Amino acid sequence: MNVSAKQIEKQRYENNKLAKRLRREVGQAIADFNMIEDGDKVMVCLSGGKDSFGLLDILLYLKEKAPIDFDVVAVNLDQKQPGFPADVLPNYLKNLGVPFHIENEDTYSIVKRVIPEGKTTCSLCSRLRRGVLYRVAGELGATKIALGHHRDDILATLFLNMFFAAKLKTMPPKLVSDDGCNVVIRPLAYCREKDLEAWAGVREFPIIPCNLCGSQPNLQRQQVKQMLVEWEKRFPGRIETMFRSLANVVPSHLMDPRLFDFAGLKPSGRPDPDGDRAFDPEELADGSIIPLEFKALHG
Ligand code: SF4
After folding, report:
1. Ligand 1: residue whose CA is nearest its atom 7
2. Where are the coiled-coil regions (predicted)?
3. Is 181 one of the annotated binding-site residues?
4. Where are the alpha helices (DSSP H) in the chain?
5. Distance from the alpha carbon of residue 49 to the mean position of ligand 1, in angstroms
6. What is the Cβ-side half-sphere exposure of residue 292, based on CA atoms within 13 angstroms?
7. pTM recorded for the entire structure
8. Residues linked to residue 23 through DSSP beta bridges, in sequence order
9. Which pLDDT tens digit goes with each residue over 72-95?
């Protein structure tokens, strides 16, 4: 075997591993949150970015393998941004043989008319888009709306909420929409962004650039993402650990009296092996210790 044949073989092996990992993670998220049920019609929102292409691609694969029966319909909202290549998605979807719908709605002009020059357009634009997509879901008889947010979006949103809204919340993997009529799911919730990027390359998705609207990029989100990337470089594994903490919440050890009855807390009089050893430093699974403040150790 010459070198290039070896390289091709290695690449094929890596691609295979990547495909298996992404499909396993999506399948696991769907199962953990009961995202898709027998008979569902899942509307996949396709923006033309790498994440929504990946979402559609993986869901179509799982649809063939899953023990349950569900339908997929791809939906793109053509917001009439200048330069939007309107034929790219229909051609791709026709070739794929998947049912699809393109909704034409000139939200771009509305946003340009209403928002003064130089101000951020994203919040009105996404509000308008959301309204259109909810309506289309109803018209198509979709029972679930699937969005392409991934693990890194979820973590970045957690920090943005902490930094700018003083809230401990993020994008959940499954929720009922604000109009009360739709269930929104995020099947990529466990997938890493860099895997989706790599998958987009492997599958050669015809990516549509996301800067057609001419909006300024969301600087705060970019800065938070950069912060996470730097942490991960310095402390490998930190992102995964932080992400897992979202599914391991201890309300009695936070400070929200709506989630835990601190006011009514009384000694039970019985020892509890899993109880809190408030005066001991906490031992982690790997045997290391979370250091306490001197004050906590010595009163
Ligand atoms: S980046 Fe452009 S298309 Fe995307 S939400 Fe903002 S204004 Fe809308």
Report:
1. 122
2. none
3. no
4. 3-32, 50-65, 88-96, 107-114, 122-140, 151-165, 193-203, 219-234, 238-245, 294-298
5. 12
6. 13
7. 0.91
8. none
9. 999 999 999 988 999 999 999 999
